[in-house]
Amino acid sequence: MPLVTPLLESNEEVLELARFFNETLGFCPNSVLTMMRRPKIAKAFIKLNMAVMDNQGRVTSSLKRLIAYVSSNVTGCRYCQAHTIRAAERYGAEQAQLDNIWEYKTHPAFTDAERVALDFSVAASTVPNGVDEELNQRLHQHWEEDEIVEILGVISLFGYLNRWNDSMATTLEEGAIASGESLLALKGWEVGKHTN
Q: Angle of helix 112-125 relative to helix 145-168, nearest 10 degrees?
């Protein structure tokens, strides 16, 4: 049962911004509907999400969602795991990447640049933080500094969302459950506390 019930109606301006998620997920997430209890929080979050997920070049929409999935898996947020794998699929991640995300270090579906981005996601999502000089050097071999900012923006955004949704026990939506069950259940994913 969620800590706070998501709102069904809210500030019209915030609801308009929330339509952004219809493209990403196919629905407005319950996390945003919960944030709408304080429209300024929802509005600021939506604008941050739009800025972080905006494509500037080589850090593609699908890679950003895979980075977010890996970060959410490290922190244990099942809500965000389902959302990010769904979004990765919707944004064109290769099926081989979706099926083998946890074999990214060796699976041929991933490039060396993607591997280091996902390693960075793991290291930056752990507590205490695991980013070290060796990883710093590997990142700079494959990514420009502006791109590293984009990658860390995704990891940081999902740090917020992982805390929000895991603490709120935000109820998972049917579409997210379907994605979790079809793409993650074989790796042990379950809805857990994110039920009504």
A: 50
Q: What is the DSSP string of 45-108?
A: HHHHHHHHHS--SSS-HHHHHHHHHHHHHHHT-HHHHHHHHHHHHHTT--HHHHHTGGGTTT-T
Is 0.85 surpassed by the pTM of this model? yes
Would you mind telling me the total number of residues written for the chain in this entry?
A: 196
Interatomic CA distance for residues 127 and 47, integer angstroms: 27
Phi, psi (degrees; rounded to nearest 5) at 183: -110, -20
Distances in Å between the alpha carbon of 17 and those of 45, 50, 116, 145, 190? 10, 9, 33, 29, 30
pLDDT digits (tens, 9 = 90+) for 113-143: 999 999 999 999 999 999 999 999 999 999 9
